[in-house]
């Protein structure tokens, strides 16, 4: 389309992305079954359910003494509660005794509570009178310093949904549940075609007027980070027949094709013609109101997206993040596309007040949600011993040492996992 002066009109970034997402009939990727050790970064293709309660028993979250909480009510440093030491609970073993009124059992973090106990007094809140008796100087409530059986995950509960990218903490939870085989989507293959008579391989010397291949390596890293498999096809001359043949070959075994260096003046018409000649719908946009990245071409041949990128490395990165990454994430089978994959941090508004103690740097787990075009950080609160809070979280917000908290609506920096 041209304006009144005969110049090509550029479309906005938003319109260009809308066109490419609208016209590509995204298909469901093929499934493969992998062990958890080979599944890092893969996209889950089926919902995963817990085969058992986690934990399978009531366990302590601190070092201290397992007690019946009623025996500690009213305890203070001036008027402590006196409890007799019944026994010590060894790690990895089930207690073979029951606590009776006025009794306590020594327990370590992770230890199994005996019958008759419903809480754990921290070691710091006790005083040893002798080998058989302790003083409790601070009361505990029922369930305090304890993770109840099934509190982390209940049997048959859906713990990970289809379309989620597996992170290290997700793999850890699966291992803790004994789930060692996972159905995931195959990663999409992205062919990278470098065009330009001036480009030489990275390991070759250059002459005046030549440049080494930067873009295929830059793109390979970006594609890997976004969940794809880069396939560098090589460096090709800016000739229609040559580019047409390698694009045709790439379409046979690729989920996406990216052509670099063939969208600027002199070669842009050739790249666009190749895409149009390969099949429908062809070129969907050509030229974007963007700097750098104005000559960007986006199109598709059947259900395979095809992009023509300018040759400038900075423009490559900008165009990748704006256009190729959103499309690639759809091709991976990922469901949550609101969270950037390649960035380490994001700004978001905190959804609720969070208090913190002065003199302590506090790290709060948060989930990222999109609300009205803005990112919001929703705190994931829970006991420190719960590991499924990591599954629910997308990153961490740090409350600095001397700050007393964060107010709802405040913009915070989220360090993504």
Which labels suit this protein?
7 helices; single chain; Molybdopterin biosynthesis moeA protein, domain 3; 4 domains; six-stranded mixed beta sheet; alpha+beta; Molybdopterin biosynthesis moea protein, domain 2; elongated; 417 residues; Molybdenum Cofactor Biosythetic Enzyme, Chain A
Can you walk through the features of this model?
The protein is α+β, with helices and mostly antiparallel strands and 417 residues long. It has 4 domains: 13-30 and 188-332, 3-Layer(aba) Sandwich (Molybdenum Cofactor Biosythetic Enzyme, Chain A), CATH 3.40.980.10; 35-54 and 157-185, Alpha-Beta Complex (Molybdopterin biosynthesis moea protein, domain 2), CATH 3.90.105; 59-147, Beta Complex (Molybdopterin biosynthesis moeA protein, domain 3); 345-416, MoeA, C-terminal, domain IV (Beta-clip), CATH 2.40.340.10. The protein has 7 helices and 28 strands. Strands 8-5-7-6-10-9 form a 6-stranded mixed sheet, with no helix packed on it. A 6-stranded mixed sheet has the order 17-14-18-21-20-19, with helices on both faces. A 5-stranded mixed beta barrel has the order 22-25-24-26-28. Helix 1 runs parallel beside helix 6 (313-332), helix 3 (215-225) packs parallel to helix 6 (313-332) and helix 4 crosses helix 5. The longest helix has 20 residues, at 313-332. The model is unreliable at 1-7 (pLDDT under 50).
């Amino acid at each position: 389309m041209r304006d009144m002066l005969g110049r090509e009109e550029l479309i906005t970034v938003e319109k260009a992305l809308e066109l490419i997402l609208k016209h590509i009939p995204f298909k469901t990727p093929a499934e493969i079954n992998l062990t958890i050790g080979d599944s890092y970064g893969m996209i889950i293709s089926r919902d995963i359910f817990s085969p058992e309660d986690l934990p399978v028993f009531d366990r302590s979250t601190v070092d201290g003494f397992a007690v019946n909480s009623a025996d500690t009510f009213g305890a203070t440093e001036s008027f402590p509660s006196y409890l007799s030491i019944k026994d010590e609970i060894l790690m990895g073993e089930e207690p073979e005794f029951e606590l009776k009124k006025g009794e306590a059992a020594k327990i370590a973090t992770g230890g199994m509570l005996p019958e008759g106990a419903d809480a754990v007094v921290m070691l710091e809140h006790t005083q040893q009178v002798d080998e058989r008796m302790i003083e409790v100087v601070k009361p505990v409530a029922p369930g305090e310093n304890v993770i109840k059986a099934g509190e982390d995950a209940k049997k048959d509960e859906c713990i990970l949904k289809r379309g989620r990218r597996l992170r290290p903490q997700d793999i850890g939870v699966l291992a803790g549940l004994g789930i060692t085989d996972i159905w995931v989507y195959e990663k999409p293959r992205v062919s990278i075609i470098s065009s330009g008579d001036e480009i030489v391989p990275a390991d070759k010397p250059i002459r005046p007027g030549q440049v080494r291949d930067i873009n295929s390596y830059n793109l390979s890293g970006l594609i890997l980070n976004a969940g794809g498999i880069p396939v560098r096809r090589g460096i090709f001359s800016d000739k229609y027949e040559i580019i047409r043949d390698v694009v045709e070959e790439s379409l046979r075994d690729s989920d996406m094709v990216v052509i670099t260096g063939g969208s600027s003046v002199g070669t842009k018409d050739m790249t666009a013609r190749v895409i149009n000649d390969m099949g429908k719908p062809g070129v969907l946009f050509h030229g974007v109101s963007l700097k750098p990245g104005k000559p960007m071409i986006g199109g598709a041949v059947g259900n395979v997206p095809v992009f023509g990128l300018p040759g400038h490395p900075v423009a490559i990165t900008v165009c990748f993040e704006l256009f190729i990454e959103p499309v690639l994430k759809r091709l991976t089978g990922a469901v949550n596309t609101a969270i950037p994959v390649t960035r380490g941090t994001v700004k978001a508004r905190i959804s609720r007040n969070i208090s913190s103690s002065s003199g302590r740097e506090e790290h709060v787990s948060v989930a990222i949600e999109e609300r009205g075009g803005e990112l919001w950080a929703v705190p994931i609160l829970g006991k420190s011993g719960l590991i499924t809070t990591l599954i629910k979280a997308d990153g961490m917000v740090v409350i600095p040492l001397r700050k007393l908290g964060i107010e709802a609506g405040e913009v915070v920096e989220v360090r993504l996992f």
